[in-house]
Description:
Layout: H1 11-27, H2 35-50, E1 56-61, E2 77-78, E3 85-94, H3 96-101, E4 107-114, E5 126-132, H4 146-157, E6 165-169, H5 175-183, E7 187-191, H6 195-203, E8 211-217, H7 218-231, E9 234-239, H8 244-252, E10 261-262, H9 263-266, E11 273-278, E12 289-290, E13 295-304, E14 309-318, H10 319-322
Parallel strand pairs: 1-3, 6-7, 6-8
Antiparallel strand pairs: 1-2, 3-4, 4-11, 5-8, 5-9, 9-10, 11-13, 12-13, 13-14
Amino acid sequence: MTHKDLPDRNLALELVRTTEAAALSAARLVGRGDKEAADQAAVDAMRSVLDSVQMDGIVVIGEGEKDEAPMLFNGERIGDGSLPQVDIAVDPLEGTTLTAKGMPSALSVIALSARGTMFDPGPCVYMEKIAGARSVADLLDLDRPLAQTVELIAQRKGTTVGDVMVVVLDRPRHEEGIRAIRDAGARVRLITDGDVSAALLAVQDDSPVDLLWGVGGTPEGVISACAIKCIGGRLISRLWPRNDGERQAAIDAGYDLTRILDQDDLVSGDDCFFSATGVTDGDVLQGVRYDGAGAATTESLVMRSRSGTVRRIFTRHDRTKMRGIPGATP
């Protein structure tokens, strides 16, 4: 590849415009009880802004197959068609239920890397995951009993097991693991949704959470891998078929269901970008807020793996002026 074929650093600010637009649009529906409408608002806004971004992008991780999603579907080409050629992973609204119920930690998210570097999970919708900060990266293991892992993390941190906090999706499939964590003396933070937000929280050194564990979405796993390559820490995963049909489909497609995948397997390029904008307030980002002067404010996290740059961007949006801008709902 020539230099001009590679993603440019200016893409970071282009991407944050897309997540800001999606967050602003979805935020108007926070607490309204309609997760489909909130998701559609975010999708419409993000797609509109993506049309103007200078890139030749293919959606690897999107809203689903073309017959399920009219836009931002897997395989869709986005951008203005110019170089660089890139893979795109999007979640215009991570936490549709969180948004509908006015609950914390809903985000708008996009990730980008050079063409051909993002892992396509094929028929597998879920994967086992465990993630943590740099300080405990070598202790992560999907096959070791959870009780031993939390004990090792406590030893590494120089604390008691009772000080270790593990974030877990609140799902019936996790009941045994949750019991094992608690029986070991560690603590559990249950979340209803929000894999990407939880992964970001788990890998930060100054976080109240030490570990992310459980079975979650493969799209969220790929997006989280991109973020972790930028911010540091480690994610390891393994595909988790939901049933015999999905298992056989994965085997027929050539997937090794025993293979451990880390962030470099999920996003193999060394130059990836990540942007997230808060929709509702959470541990990672502040949500969209409104003032009496007709303005909205957003907080975004924008990162690039090649440079290791991590930016927090606070933006004030004039809602009156935004009314004429596609993809930016005032």
